[in-house]
Write a structure and sequence with these properties.
CATH architecture of one domain: 2-Layer Sandwich
Number of strands: 19
Structural class: alpha/beta
Largest sheet: 6 strands, mixed
Strand content: 25-35%
Radius of gyration: 22 Å
Shape: globular
Number of helices: 12
CATH topology of one domain: Nucleotidyltransferase, domain 5
């Protein structure tokens, strides 16, 4: 496969920015390059400083380019944050012609389904079909070619703040990157960690990141609900820094190395070393004290996600339980605590159907970045590749063109 068909996923997170380069295969994707950088300039998943964000993006992309031996021109960028909202909608049309459903009918019924009132400060990010109805025949995945007189569609519409989406595009463009598409991060994560069986019998994917925790529910292989909670691993780090009286950098290292979300998993004789601040000497602290700090915060995060799940009304339809992703989910005891709060089975979500540098990305914190590759691979089979940037286009003009195209689609959605 030529190098021009490589796909790049860019996970712009609150704590880290990750660029992953992949090559589509029959069985999934082969990872050929990866680059990570500490994220500066984002808060709660939203860009608050473009210059710092650009520097972090460039560092991650340069590292991925060096490993993959290619030049990255275009990316699929992830978007998350508490500004993300999802709503279910329904559309109905009459089937034209000889009563056989065509691609044009599918486009028309989706247009009818997305004709909902959307505030002026919000933009449609995804329109995700859940299922079709031909006359009285329900739960049809692909109705093209079927006979009938009435076609209905159920869709899930994901919207986000216009300014947040534009700032992500602007940050990428100032990093000399074109944005092929903006993708909801929990949707991307689901493409890399969920199995078809889980999607069919019902599953919730919970992506616990640094600034936010995102939720997506799948029933009958379709996404039914999306939501977000404005809490994540950074809140845990802040609690540790305050409780143990140490720096944020040291608290983050302690969280990763010694953190535990359940106090009963810690042995009484375990101790950890806590660096001092302001020239003070380091001291030893029982690890159970750290667990007593971590457990209430993790319990709060999971309880808020549980409340979001309850609001969806779909909890009893999740036969496969929970799949946890994101770096914070790696804290020991997180899965057990989630099972106790949600009263359903839970597991950690690792990227699946991955080849190449598989060992490098075999971690829940890379679920979103790898999922962006799967999303991009699906899109590239539907539309012509858009990796090459024309020699005469500048970064800023490319960004405004991309934003203008998305804005045109947005206005057409709300007309």
């Amino acid at each position: 496969m030529p190098r021009s068909e490589l796909i790049v996923g860019l996970d712009i997170g609150t704590t880290k920015i990750c660029a992953v380069v992949g090559e589509p295969t029959e069985n999934g994707v082969d990872i050929v390059g990866i680059g990570t950088s500490p994220s500066h300039g984002l808060r709660k998943g939203v860009v608050v400083n473009i210059d710092q964000t650009v520097q972090s993006i460039r560092k991650a992309v340069e590292e991925a380019e060096l490993m993959a031996g290619c030049e990255i021109k275009s990316v699929y960028a992830g978007i998350a944050g508490s500004h993300i909202k999802g709503v279910n909608s329904h559309g109905v049309i009459a089937i034209k012609g000889g009563g056989e459903v065509t691609r044009q009918d599918l486009d028309r019924v989706l247009d009818a389904a997305k004709a909902v009132a959307i505030p002026m400060d919000r933009e449609v990010i995804h329109i995700l079909p859940q299922g079709y109805i031909v006359d009285d025949q329900r739960d049809i995945a692909d109705p093209i070619g079927m006979s009938g007189v009435r076609l209905e569609a159920n869709v899930h519409i994901v919207t986000g703040a216009v300014t947040s989406a534009q700032n992500i595009i602007r940050s990428c463009t100032r990093s000399d990157l074109d944005v092929s598409d903006i993708v909801l991060e929990s949707l991307a994560s689901s493409k890399s960690v969920l199995t078809e069986e889980e999607r069919e019998i019902g599953v919730a994917i919970v992506d616990i990141g640094g600034g936010t925790s995102d939720l997506a529910l799948f029933v009958n292989r379709a996404i039914k609900h999306t939501g977000a909670v404005a809490l994540g691993g950074d809140n845990l780090t802040n609690d540790i820094a305050f409780g143990l009286r140490t720096s944020l950098a040291a608290a983050d290292r302690i969280k990763i190395k010694h953190g535990c979300a359940l106090t009963n998993l810690v042995r009484p004789d375990e101790v950890i070393e806590v660096p001092g601040v302001g020239g003070r000497s380091a001291r030893t602290v029982e690890r159970s004290v750290l667990a007593e700090i971590c457990e209430p915060r993790m319990e709060e995060i999971l309880a808020l996600i549980y409340q979001e799940l309850e609001r969806s009304g779909l909890r009893r339809q999740l036969g496969a339980g929970l799949v946890l992703t994101g770096g914070t989910a790696l804290i020991p005891g997180c899965v057990e605590l989630a099972e106790d709060i949600f009263q359903m089975p839970a597991r950690l979500g690792y990227p699946r159907n991955v080849g190449g540098l598989k060992d490098v990305v075999n971690n829940p914190k890379f679920a979103t970045a790898v999922g962006l590759l799967f999303y991009g691979a699906e899109k590239e089979t539907e539309t012509p590749p858009r990796f090459a940037r024309s020699s005469g286009s500048s970064g800023e003009s490319g960004m405004f063109h991309t934003v203008w195209e998305r804005m045109k689609r947005w206005f057409s959605d709300i007309r």
